[in-house]
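re: ur msg from earlier - yeah i can do the 5'-O-[(L-methionyl)-sulphamoyl]adenosine complex, just paste it... oh wait u already did. ok heres what im feeding in:
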Amino acid sequence: MKFYITTPIYYVNDKPHIGHAYTTIAADILARFKRLMGYNVFFLTGTDEHGKKIEKAAEELKISPKELADKNHIIFKELWEKLDISYSKFIRTTDPEHQEAVKVFWTKMVSSGTVYKGKYVGWYCIHCESFFPSSQVKDGKCPSCGRAVDILEEESYFFSVKKFKEKLSKYIETSNFIRPEFRKAEVLNALKEIDDISISRSRERVSWGIPVPGDDKFVIYVWVDALINYVSALGYPNGDKMSFWPADVHFIGKDILKFHAIYWPMFLEAVGLEPPKTIFSHGWWRVEGKKMSKSLKNVVDPFEIAKLFGSDTLRFFMFREIPFGRDGDFSEEAIRKRYESNLAKDFGNLLLRVSKFAENNFPEGVRKNFPSSNTELETAFDLWMEKMENIDYFSALDVIWNLVNLANKLMDQKSPWNLIKHDREKAEQVIYELAHIIKVIIFMLYPFCVSTCRKVSHNFGIQWLLDESSPKDKKDVLGFQEKFKISSTGVLFPKIEG
Ligand code: MSP
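and the outut:
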């Protein structure tokens, strides 16, 4: 069973921010979940290194674009390591194999008869690397990012869309291609209005790109170059990983939906490849109500957040705070609240209380000494599976938190610290029951809070459960084990001063 997941490839003109971390964590959560379920997952991320944006940033620093890319792509890699991102491949669009694949792809598009040479006159935004029709440009500002646009006139290669519109429209209407569902209408509208796509740039204006095969007065438009990464990483055209195509999920932000949901399937169709199965486009994080931007100096650095609160807290916060797909508001106060109330109080305290009590009173372990029944856990597990399959992380975390609350209630109501004084067996039974619930919680929470769950799985003697290299089924998770040998977890989420 193969499963192919991708993130966008990130521009290397700047350092990563929480928006980049968001998409990548979302992809990692699904990758880990699918691996636990026994899938052979290929998880791709990387960097988008060509185009005017990178050229300009390098110029300002008085270095070459390649030097800038060499320097900055490493920061992304470092961040992914900090955030426990388990990617299979990190692609760079300056990789020679990628550049070769782009040329092959281009040549195939041309021979399919869908490419012609023409002239483009219109508004152009360097930041978005896109042309915009006059109807969308107000006061000389880009309709997408708000920056100033310039009038540009140049020869260009165009991709003719008319052959593809109807089929794509049907595909969008009748499949699970666009997620969340509420974005379908906007894509269908954009598709209706779309003109032929300019797929090259004159070399005079943009020199940092892949030359158009057979016509080096032009470079290939950076979005064509970038989208092809999803197949070049598999060894397009004939590499052995091509069997992973079509991608199961492309995770992206809502701002780049048009490129993925309209351009990409058309390009693929032109070269005879299937469209991806799902494009999941998430919302944007604002910061304290405002758009994140350099000029407002409110860009949140994921390294700093991870340093202060830990990687698991960031991973948890982003998907517990808002339904995945919607916009959200990021603030240090909001993340601190989640840390203190959900992670430290509900979850961390539960684990500490149970594990410490077990360590002190049952150093040999707690044995299963009661008849088994676990319908409540089974219902929760089934629901969690359904939500995870559906990439509804918010609801999946809800299911998990209901169990955390249930376990806390059980601990309070059954007070094993009283029971132990007169009925040791009963106390052991309570702790076993709690350890069993915790085992299920740890499994379900693992894709979100990787390192905490790994640590705790050692404390509870269930590390085998989180081994992604061997598939787990319901029986593994819900089945009763002979005994739990438990050591204290210590304080998992210590108080953060300041
Ligand atoms: N290079 C292109 C993608 C090419 S994919 C074939 C690109 N790169 S990017 O670095 O600008 O952005 C990458 C991702 O970050 C996008 O999915 C975008 O939605 C996401 N985010 C950027 N700012 C964001 C927020 N403030 N909040 C959430 N995600 C945001 O686009």
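cool cool. The CA atoms of residues 125 and 461 lie 56 Å apart. ping me if u need the other ligands too
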